[in-house]
Here is the input.
Amino acid sequence: MAGQEHYIAANEFVVDELYEDALAEYNKAITAEPQNSQYLTKRAACNIKLQRFTNAVADASAAIAVDPKNGMAFFRKGVACFSLDEYESALEAFKHAGELGAKGTSTWIRKCEAELEDDEMEEEEGESAPTPAAAATTTA
Here is the structure.
């Protein structure tokens, strides 16, 4: 079976939400056509559904290396990075995706910015809070 046939079979499994079966077919499609950015992007989406976010980042990055204008690959990378709490990487990926015409990036960009802002606030609070030893000496 050629790569395209495995790709079609994988997409049918995705429709039925059989993501493990879909992943197996995407693997076969990519083995047949390893430089196919679309196949890599779809496998990234499947890995996201399976919560295999590190694998999804790897697939999306590979798709981007093959086709740097693949906006959906940047989008998938953003979703996976966000799920791994890598908000700066996610923000960068979503910005690229938006520049390339991918839909839905503005909401994700706001989510990343909010998470980064929360992280900054937590860091600032941690720096201004007295250490336990300092607190003990001020109350004694």
User: Anything to note?
Assistant: The chain has eight helices and no strands. The helical segments are 3-15, 19-32, 37-49, 53-66, 71-83, 87-99, 105-128, 132-139. The two ends are 78 Å apart (CA to CA).
